[in-house]
Amino acid sequence: MPLALAFEALGSGSPVVILHGLFGAGRNWTQVAQALAADHRVYLPDARNHGASPWAESMSYVEMAGDVLALIEREQLQRPFVIGHSMGGKTAMALALSHPGAIGGIAVIDIAPESYADQFSSYVSAMRSLEVASAASRREIQQVLANSLGADAPVDFLMQNLRRQNDRFDWRLNLLATGLCMPELCGFPGALRDARYDGPALFIHGAESGYVRPSSLAGIRALFPHAGTERIAEAGHWVHADQPAALLCGLRDWLADAGAATPY
């Protein structure tokens, strides 16, 4: 059953939905949304088990695509363009392949329709191991998490999931479900391998990221035959943080071209 996702919306114009990545929230994309809001009504939902959205035991990409479809229908959005990063990019792909008529096109940022090695279960385990409810300060939690995960871990990003309620800390993220569902989150739905989306699609990736490789392009084009690709220099996986201006330029050009070509 689809969940009613929490979301923020800003701007006016043709609708755009931006889907965040694993361990993130819609607010991570506020800067991009504000830039697009001059021409678009931009929606920033939190995925299930993330942010302010409801929790559930499962979080397959088909289910998460269903959550976004329910948001589109509830808000009566007319074929919105859907932008997704990482986990959100896979959700956008699943939505396009399973409900192509519901959207105007997808822009996928630094992810491909393939399986990846699990780099994230260690983050979940470290976060679950902390007795955050009895911690005295955010600084204390951050230091323990950094010591546990090491210098290369995105500790500041993970800490965005920490909240304080009634003088106690807890996580806004459903860590148990996220950990149990990690094999699905690192993969891509086999049931969609034979589907095809003929609408506008753009795949943007960071030049310094290893998520979209030359070998990924055949798999992308098998499912999205009209997909364009764009490589952004000096950007890693978090393209929107590394090169926001270049990403915005690519998204604006694509939205203008795809919007002109998409019948409503």
Count of individual helical segments: 11
- Which homologous superfamily in CATH is the superfamily of the largest domain? Alpha/Beta hydrolase fold, catalytic domain
Average of per-residue pLDDT values:
95
CATH architecture name of the largest domain:
3-Layer(aba) Sandwich
> In percent terms, what proportion of residues is strand?
15-25%
Q: Please report the first level of CATH classification, the CATH class of the largest domain.
A: Alpha Beta
| Rg over C-alpha atoms, rounded to the nearest angstrom | 18 Å
Protein model, in words:
The protein is an alpha/beta fold and 264 residues long. The chain has 2 domains: 7-116 and 187-261, Rossmann fold (3-Layer(aba) Sandwich); 121-180, no CATH class. Helix content is 38%, strand content 17%. It is built from 11 helices and 9 strands. The strands form 2 sheets. It has a 7-stranded mixed sheet with strand order 1-3-2-4-5-8-9, sandwiched between helices. Helix 2 (61-74) packs across helix 3 (87-98). The longest helix is centred in the last third of the chain and has 18 residues, at 244-261. The model has no long low-confidence stretch (mean pLDDT 95).
